[in-house]
Write a structure and sequence with these properties.
The chain is α/β, with parallel strands linked by helices. 41% of the residues lie in helices and 22% in strands. The chain is built from seven helices and seven strands; from the N terminus they run H-H-E-H-E-H-E-H-E-H-E-H-E-E. A seven-stranded mixed β-sheet has the order 3-2-1-4-5-7-6, with helices on both faces.
Length: 201
């Protein structure tokens, strides 16, 4: 675990220096508990950034877990790939650079954990596109769903955030009403929505 911890610390330093987004410190404890409860074997991530959450998920998951992660920005994907090569998980990570909407239809089904951390305005579309890829008891976690408190705050939203906030509101309405799912929204960080498929309380 020392190698993994040192690598996460290096990614954190890179994020601080470059401004690259990573999983917020405030939500890591909650995310860790969810991963340990879900115990995923096949993980899908939309939004790799520089690879922090991918590494975090594999550290906290089954030792045989594999992960497919999608990143549209070539520069971020290259940074993530460099960190993955330094990790003990390199052989278990499939990093694909490109638009999620183009890559998702090419993936084989059977994912039991999905982490949405890409374009927030695309969350409703991602939700629909991942449904055929999920295992029967999949867990879908979506980050930043409260977006600075605007999503469940005042109905009026400044113009520059309006589309994004409305799409996140749409996403939360969608997952809360989805048949066969129960969804919890945790306020830590910028809001994490966790949708459990066919899980009893």
């Amino acid at each position: 675990m020392k190698v993994e911890s040192a690598l996460l610390a290096e990614v954190e330093r890179t994020a601080a220096e470059t401004g690259a987004p990573i999983l917020r410190a405030a939500e890591r404890g909650r995310f860790r508990k969810i991963l340990r409860q879900a115990a995923p074997r096949r993980i899908l991530e939309i939004g790799t950034a520089i690879g922090y959450s991918a590494l975090f998920m594999l550290i906290e998951s089954d030792p045989a877990a594999t992960l497919v992660t999608l990143e549209k920005e070539p520069g971020l994907a290259a940074r993530a790939a460099a960190f993955f090569r330094k990790s003990p998980f390199a052989a278990r990570i499939d990093l694909r650079q490109g638009e999620a909407e183009d890559i998702l239809p090419t993936l084989s089904p059977g994912f039991d954990f999905v982490f949405l951390d890409g374009a927030k305005g695309q969350y409703p579309a991602y939700w629909e596109k991942i449904q055929p890829l999920l295992s029967d008891k999949a867990v879908v976690a979506a980050d930043n769903v409260l977006f600075q408190g605007l999503v469940e705050g005042d109905p009026w939203v400044a113009h520059r955030y309006r589309t994004l906030v409305y799409r996140l509101r749409e996403y939360l309405a969608l997952v809360r009403a989805a048949a066969g799912y129960r969804t919890e929204v945790f306020p830590e960080g910028d809001g994490l929505a966790v949708s459990w498929r066919h899980w009893e309380r």
